[in-house]
């Protein structure tokens, strides 16, 4: 190991590419030897190629600020993250197990609620959940599946073990960036894709289409599938358009659809007249889906949509109400949920979690705010959280008040020693940066897990916040078959 990585060190953390002796780990050997063969000038040329590709392909995301919405180019690091295939197979099995149990859990909540009756989870946890939808009680989606598309965030600890950080079962985003990261990397490092060691990711959209098509209430050869977007000002609009285009589905807004009052079916307005819609991949939050059922002032949704869905005339993915399992308080009960529904031990571990609604656990959290990460139960995108070791006394005092005012709304977790990976932070210089991973799981008639997922990286030195909205970036994720596997 010389030149590029000769001075690289990641003290006190598990580095996923380089071991403590400075040698490449097995799945990263070919990558790092190749990068070391490049001059600083050539490496910089590759980085600039990546930037130009992102601009050319129009890969962007939107950040909401007090000054307004800002479109930014997708932040990307050209050094991929590598994971050994044998390690990934364990994580994949754990994700399938977890989502199977969570869908059984959601279905139970909207029917018999045996999980509450049998004392696995307290009734008030569900009663007080912001994402439990009484309007969904008694509805039975196809295959008993509510969360058809899930993005589960994984992290690796100081010895490289995978942990689940959180589950995203409402309208998870990021998969388009996973696919685009691979497309960019193939342009920047094409020589490394000449063999079959790096497993492909490109089949996701065909799996997504098949998952959605299988939900159609009509048994027809070509069901009408649409992607329902809030519109161009949504932060994930790039992804909505990308996925619709890749699947050959229509990208629609609420005003493009209507529910016929005579048959309670959903129709799309076209120049040739109304066309019936079978499946809606919705990228709109529950409360904006149907002004008749939820927020009466919403102009994003479709009046009568919940009525059409509950009667089985249209499929919604993800189903309304699936977000009840998104709750970070519910997260703490997932290992027990897996044991209850599947009679199995969890393959993937949860991060240790303190529930602030419990007096003893709350007292511990309040005494250790400087050491813990505090999260609100239903926020996403890295918003509304306290990273204790990087916080001020003033911020800690503010969170203490928030916790005391609404303890049900907060959980706390130890500050994890998140794994790192080499990241190109300036010309010819690699430094360790913390990262997480969001694989995407499709569930319906069959279950599919992406090969790896979206790696998000904290571009700021020492930061644990990887969200792009909070200054994070991204890498391509390689699941690598090594010799002897």
Topology:
Blueprint: H1 29-36, H2 40-57, E1 60-65, E2 68-73, E3 81-84, H3 85-109, H4 114-117, H5 123-127, E4 149-156, E5 162-168, H6 175-188, H7 204-213, E6 225-228, H8 237-247, E7 250-252, E8 257-259, E9 266-268, E10 275-276, E11 279-282, H9 305-310, E12 315-317, H10 328-331, H11 334-342, E13 349-350, E14 354-355, H12 359-367, E15 372-376, E16 386-387, H13 393-405, E17 410-414, E18 420-426, E19 429-438, E20 440-443, E21 447-449, E22 454-457, E23 473-475, E24 477-480
Parallel strand pairs: 3-24, 5-13, 6-7, 6-11, 11-12
Antiparallel strand pairs: 1-2, 4-5, 4-20, 8-9, 9-10, 14-17, 15-16, 15-17, 18-19, 19-22, 20-21, 22-23
Organism: Marinomonas arenicola
Protein name: Circularly permuted type 2 ATP-grasp protein
InterPro entries: ATP-dep_Glu-Cys_Ligase-2, CP_ATPgrasp_2, UCP005522
- Which structural category do the helix and sheet elements fall into? alpha+beta
Overall pLDDT level: 91
Report low-confidence residues grouped into runs of 5 or more: none
Q: Rg, please? A: 23 Å
Shape call: globular
Number of DSSP strands? 24
Q: What is the strand content? A: 15-25%
Which sequence of strands runs across the widest sheet?
13-5-4-20-21
Task: Give an account of the 3D structure.
The protein is an alpha+beta fold. It has helices at about 30-35, 40-55, 85-110, 115, 125, 175-190, 205-215, 235-245, 305-310, 330, 335-340, 360-365, 395-405; strands at about 60-65, 70-75, 80-85, 150-155, 160-170, 225-230, 250, 255-260, 265-270, 275, 280, 315, 350, 355, 370-375, 385, 410-415, 420-425, 430-440, 440-445, 445-450, 455, 475, 475-480. Strands 13-5-4-20-21 form a 5-stranded mixed sheet. A hairpin with a 2-residue loop joins β18 and β19. The protein starts with about 30 loop residues before the first helix and ends in a 5-residue tail after the last strand. This is Circularly permuted type 2 ATP-grasp protein.
